[in-house]
Known about the structure:
The complex is a heterodimer of chains A (about 375) and B (about 325). Chain A has helices at about 1-30, 35-45, 50-75, 85-100, 105-135, 140-160, 190, 200-205, 205-225, 225-235, 240-245, 250-265, 270-275, 285-295, 300-325, 330-365, 370-375, 380. Chain A has about 375 residues and is mostly helical.
Amino acid sequence: MKARLLLLQIAAPVVAILFGMLISSIIILAIGRNPLEVFGIMVRFSLTRTDSLFSILFKSTPLILAGLAVAMSFRVNLFNIGVEGQYYIGAFFAAYVGFTLRGLPPLVHLPLALAAAMIGGMLWGLLPIVLKLRRGAHEVITTIMMNYIASALLLYLIADIFRDPAQAGTPRVRTPDVAGAARIPSLGPFFAQFGLTGSDVQKVNALIIIGIVLAVVLAYALARTRFGYEVRAVAANPLAAEAAGIPNARVQFLVFMLSAGIAGLVGLNDILGFFGYLDIDFPKGLGFLGISIALLAKNHPIGVIPAALLLGFLDRGAQGVQFFARVPKETIVIMQAIIILAIVVAYELMTRYVRVQRKREAQLGTPPGPQAAMQPGSAEAGS
Amino acid sequence: MEYLTSLVSLALIASAIRVTMPILLASLGAVYSERGGVVNIGLEGTMVMGTFFGAVGNYFFAEGFPGLVRVFPDLAPIAGVLAAILAGILFASIHALVTVTFRVDQIVSGVALNLLAAGLARFLNILLFTQSTQSPGVRGFTPIDIPLLRDIPQLGPLVRGISPMIIAALLLVVLSQWVLLRTRFGLRLRAVGEYPLAADTLGVDVARMRYAGVLLSGALAGMAGAYLAIEQAHLYFEGMTQGRGFIALAAMIFGNWWPVGALGASALFGYFDALSLRVVRLPVPYQFISVLPHVVTILVLAGFVRRAQMPAADGVPYTKEEE
Lengths: 383, 323
């Protein structure tokens, strides 16, 4: 049973990905192209070139963080759809600390910028969670509204208040440069020792290590610590947890703040790791991709890493497909959404199948005849 | 003082009525879906499909039948609205299949649908119009004047040059209120949302009623999108829904899951939406004015959700029997 369960756990996402490929094949056929050829180009472009592999790592870095942020909130039955807005504000906080403070050593300045980003994310997550716990306002709608407000606020801050005076007269709308001490170091020099060089290698920075370490720490905390136990208890049965003395509201509040704090870091891959300033056109939509990743990973912190790599691969592959096969890259966006829908259905069917199997096995252990009907407890005893 | 009078001018109210309509139509849809017990966060994506197919149906009908359109110019927008409704129903049927048949978490399915809508709209736009974010311009309905009232000059913008879709939407509010309160279908739909087990015992097909609720919400959200594209912007462009599908959900909650309540709540949002569009010369940066509807949404959810009477089984998948 255990081995079969593990097999199912792996089979569900594979089936969902195949289903996503099937639907996109139909779309590709409909626009008169050969799906096998298109997928071939996608795989060859993404996986056989050094620049592509490192580009996938760079793209996956914020996705790991966004996926972790969403997954943590899902773990306590909350939907933090506000990762998007939280990372806008986090990115601004980090940029602000980066360009106003000068002359600090990197060992002080960078941690300060990271902390600022987390505080920014938490501040933006505070209102929705307080309104949820105090007033019952549904967090899905309030966090989405906070996303729109964050986007407008960011526009105002970058364009009207903190616009780099050096860019006046140019169409560029961005903050001043972040101090070198607040930049996240590139891993390029490390890879250079192995003869791996290029602009895409240079872009990969230390934030990916933070993301992976965070995933491992969270997985450990959830599985092995008292706090993790409380989180699992609240998720499994809020009433029972409350009765056992675990305060639901407090656990939900803390986990949501953790989620929003991690969300605050999402934008830093580009702001502190690559550009070194906050531009009005900085990458958006990463928070929504985080939702897909959390769903793919079934909210498991370690699962978030391969899920983020998969989305990074799809994103890079989409560029290749657009450039070399001249198939619109939106085909791949559609494939992503189909995979998500298929995977949630697959997980649901899997859970239901396992439940049925357990029940059947339990029933098989029951001796037949009227005796069984008189002893309802025998079903449990037989399993 | 000048600020204050401009806050209640007739022109502003007329504009508020216009921008209320997409929120109202989508929140009517949300009422049907949630009365049946299915939360539909995918309303935003459904609305995106409505904006796109509203413009597409309108544009290609006008291209395909130029002679017909010359004689009856309103046929093209009608084709657009029908296309949007059909697209909305098809799109919502995915939500129904995933949440009612497969009993997947309703929020998760809705979120995935919103992602799908964004990708699908871009992809189809490239196929049809060779660019990703915008359709060509389309013609709206011929505006109409309200008989009798149109001669009162004081009412000016409120009774003259009205979109027929506004009248249709207001009639739909009355119709929906009647359907939910007085018809067999409405009663069954509400029973399924309140206490599916009891409804099931009495022979009501729970899954079928829930499908009906979700598909109706798709049709209405599609129509809401069509209004945005055909009557308001006269084209489709990416991101034009601006979260109105989500605001509509808040309006439905504020309206206590009733069509007439949704009308009142949508009007409130519409007023702030109109205010944000007009930028009454207030000494405040425009970015802050533009998020007024979103701020009001949060305030409304925070202040009023407590006294709301939501359907008891709203958001809970119904399992006929444990297999």
